[in-house]
C-alpha cells in the first residue's frame, strides 16, 4: 500500500538548512571515486569552481530485476523514476549549464555501484550520487516522502544552488509527463542562467 507522509516540503526551511548543513555524506561519482564530505563543503567547492549545483531527489531504490510494488507505476508521485528521467543524458549538457549534478536516492551500496557503472558508460562525468538509505537526510531536512510497505521513498523534487549563493527548490508537477518535465527543466535553466544571458542551448534531459 502507498501512503504519503503528512509533512509537506517547506521550501524556505529546506533551502536555509541546506546551505548551512555540516552533515557528512558519502559522495560517489561515476568514475568510481568516493568521498566523505559535508554538504556545506560540497556547496563551497562548487562555488569556488564557479559552478551551479543541481541536486535531484528521486524515488525508487529498486534493482532493475526487482518487481515494483503493486500500484507503483500508477502513483503520480513515484512515476518516472528511471535513470533516463532523472539525470543528464550526457556530460556536455551539464558543462553547457556550468553545473554539477548530484542525485540523492535510497539505493543500497551494491545497486549504487552497478548504477554508477551504467551511468559512466553514458559519459555522465559530471554526475555524483548520495545514498540516503538510512533516512538521515530525509530526517535532517524534513523531506516529504512516499511510504511503501514501511519503507520511505523521496517525493521527486530538485534543489538548485547557484555560484552566487542563491538556492531554490523546484517541485516536478504531477503527473510526470513530457510537458511537466519540459516546464521543470526550463524553470531550473531560467533560475541558473536567465534566458537572455544564455550563450548556448542548455537542456536537462529527464
Structure keywords:
7-stranded mixed sheet; Glutaredoxin; 3-stranded antiparallel sheet; disordered C terminus; 206 residues; alpha+beta
Topology readout:
Elements: E1 2-4, H1 11-19, E2 24-29, E3 34-38, H2 39-48, E4 52-57, H3 83-86, H4 91-96, E5 99-105, H5 109-121, E6 127-131, H6 136-141, E7 145-148, E8 151-154, E9 157-161, E10 167-171, H7 178-192
Parallel strand pairs: 4-5, 5-6
Antiparallel strand pairs: 1-7, 2-3, 2-6, 4-9, 7-8, 9-10
Distance between the termini: 27 Å
Count of separate DSSP helical elements: 7
CATH class, named Alpha Beta
Task: Kindly report the average pLDDT value.
Answer: 69
Q: How many β-strands, per DSSP?
A: 10
Low-pLDDT segments:
81-92, 199-206
Number of domains: 1
Provide the CATH superfamily.
Glutaredoxin
Q: Nearest-angstrom radius of gyration?
A: 16 Å
Main sheet attributes: strand count, strand direction, barrel closure: 7 strands, mixed
Helix content estimate? 25-40%
Give the strand content. 15-25%
Structural class, from helix and strand content?
alpha+beta
SSE succession: EHEEHEHHEHEHEEEEH
Give me the side-by-side strand order of the main sheet.
Answer: 3-2-6-5-4-9-10
Amino acid at each position: 500500500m502507498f501512503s504519503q507522509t503528512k509533512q509537506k516540503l517547506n521550501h524556505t526551511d529546506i533551502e536555509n538548512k541546506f546551505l548551512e548543513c555540516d552533515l557528512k555524506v558519502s559522495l560517489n561519482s561515476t568514475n568510481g571515486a568516493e568521498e566523505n564530505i559535508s554538504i556545506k563543503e560540497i556547496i563551497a567547492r562548487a562555488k569556488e569552481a564557479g559552478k551551479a549545483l543541481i541536486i535531484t531527489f528521486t524515488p525508487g531504490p529498486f534493482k532493475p530485476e526487482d518487481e515494483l510494488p503493486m500500484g507503483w507505476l500508477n502513483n503520480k508521485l513515484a512515476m518516472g523514476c528511471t535513470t533516463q528521467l532523472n539525470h543528464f543524458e550526457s556530460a556536455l549538457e551539464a558543462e553547457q549549464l556550468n553545473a554539477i549534478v548530484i542525485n540523492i536516492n535510497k539505493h543500497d551500496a551494491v545497486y549504487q555501484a552497478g548504477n554508477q557503472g551504467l551511468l559512466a558508460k553514458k559519459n555522465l562525468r559530471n554526475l555524483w550520487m548520495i545514498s540516503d538509505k538510512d533516512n538521515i537526510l530525509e530526517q535532517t531536512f524534513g523531506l516529504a516522502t512516499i511510504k511503501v510497505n514501511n519503507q520511505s521513498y523521496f517525493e521527486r523534487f530538485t534543489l538548485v544552488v547557484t555560484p552566487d549563493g542563491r538556492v531554490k527548490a523546484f517541485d516536478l508537477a504531477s503527473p510526470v509527463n513530457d510537458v511537466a518535465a519540459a516546464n521543470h527543466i526550463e524553470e531550473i535553466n531560467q533560475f541558473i542562467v536567465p534566458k537572455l544571458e544564455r550563450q548556448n542551448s542548455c537542456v536537462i534531459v529527464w
